[in-house]
Amino acid sequence: MTHTVLHINSSARTEGSLSRIKSSEIVADQNADTVLTRDLAQGLPFLDATWVTSTFMAPDERDAAQVKALEFSNELVAEVQAADTIVIGTAMYNFSIPAVLKAWIDQIARAGVTFTYTETGPKGLLEGKKAIITIATGGVQLGTEYDFASAYLRQVLGLVGITDVTILDIEGNEVAAKAA
Q: Please, what is the average pLDDT of the chain?
C-alpha cells in the first residue's frame, strides 16, 4: 500500500521559517512513497463571483470562463484527494492563519466536491485522511483565548471530513482539541 503526503507551507518567510523547518521534519518522518508539495507563499487567487457562481452549477452547465475559474481549485482538490496525510506548516499572524492559507481552504472547501449538505448539517467527503499541523506562533500559546488558528483549522478540516487532526506548536507539543 502506498502512502502519499501533501506538504503545505504557508509562512511568508522562506528563509529561516520555523514552521517550514518543522513541517519538513514531519514530512520526512512519514516514510511516504509520494510527497506532493504546495508552497502557498507563492500566492493563490482569492474567490471571485465567477468562481462562486461556477461551484453552484452542474459541470456540464458551465461556460468556458466558469470552467477556467475552477481549474486551479480542481488541481488543489485533487492534491488533497490523493493524499493520505496532509502536513501543514503555518505561522500565526495576528492570532490567526495567513490569508494565503485561508485562500487555500476556500479553494478546497467545495460543496458537492469535498463536503455535502445533509439534513443534519454538512458531511465531509474526505474521510480517512490524517492532518498534522505545526504552527509557529511568535509567542502566543496555542489553545488560549488568543489562538484563533488551531480551532479554526481543526473545524474547517472537519468540514471536509478530515477529523484525525494533530496540531503541534513549533516545539512539537500537541495542542489538545477543545470540546465543542
A: 93
Give me the residue label for grid cell 479553494. Answer: 107
Beta strands in the chain (DSSP E): 4-9, 34-39, 85-91, 115-118, 121-124, 130-136, 164-169
Q: Determine what percent of the chain falls in helix, strand and coil, rounding each to the nearest 5.
A: 35, 25, 40
- Region for residue 35 given its phi and psi (left: phi exceeds 0; alpha: psi -120 to 50; beta: otherwise): beta
With 80 as the cut, is the pLDDT of residue 156 above it?
yes
Task: Record the pTM.
Answer: 0.93
Give me the amino acid identity at 32.
Answer: A
Quote the distance between the C-alpha of residue 159 and its chain's center: 11
Q: pLDDT for 132-155, tens place per residue?
A: 999 999 888 888 899 999 999 999
